[in-house]
């Protein structure tokens, strides 16, 4: 029960930050005639990011109060693949690498689905790499391991997710293009996604069509969420209240 309460506390912080950020995005969109993503998709993105922070445990201000800014060199690896080669159990190390890949696969799917104008491999992969880098850097100061292999695995996972999206997009486009060619239902949807017309594609930066700028909205949500988690989530303090130690 206590574990559920701890997870609920962390989820509440994540959702509160996301909803506050969404309100700001909507207000900005009204003044600029932009079109933010649907709330349901934003909440799905928030639940996914909750899963990421729940698993990875990024830095909080309370961690800094306990551990300070001291970096343990033994918990830092900047040499690619060395943690796999030198692992006591290579099988376990490979499983860990694979799990880091799997962790970011949903990100590669969610970003182009919710923000179609950002549906390009390089911007999506860069988003995944940037999110992973923020988390890995924060783990320098909270007694966790920071590993360049985790960055590579997360970026690879994002690309795998985008590849799944691209396969699905092409599968949707093909029958629509055939119908349009034979005069059945007109030309295919330019967004390539059933149910998402190009005018519905969300954009945070004044409705700009460029893929890099289109991902500004989810980047804002992710940053707001991480900042709120940094300031408001005190796992040990809440555990003390629950367990009375």
TrEMBL record:
Q: Where are the transmembrane segments?
A: 6-27, 39-62, 93-114, 121-139, 151-168, 220-243
Output the superkingdom of the source species: Bacteria
Instruction: Name the keywords, alphabetized.
Output: Membrane, Transmembrane, Transmembrane helix
InterPro entries in alphabetical order: Teicoplanin_resist-assoc (IPR053150), VanZ-like (IPR006976)
Q: Does the keyword Transmembrane apply?
A: yes
VanZ-like domain location is 45-168
Instruction: Tell me if Cell division is a UniProt keyword of this record.
Output: no
Q: What is this protein called?
A: VanZ family protein
